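Re: the 56-residue chain
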Amino acid sequence: MSELATCYFKLQDYGKSGLYFEQALQIDPSNLEYRVKRALCSKLENSVEIWHEPEP
């Protein structure tokens, strides 16, 4: 699960990434890395700004 979470994180799909880190935590609830990354995904998902290239 953590591999999928990492892939989605790299694609900046923080919602899906967070869900997969949550699933990874169900398998290994004491894993601090998964907890931190899940929290980071939640924070990033709520603060992502869409940036567009200005037109000439």
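The CA atoms of residues 1 and 15 lie 14 Å apart.
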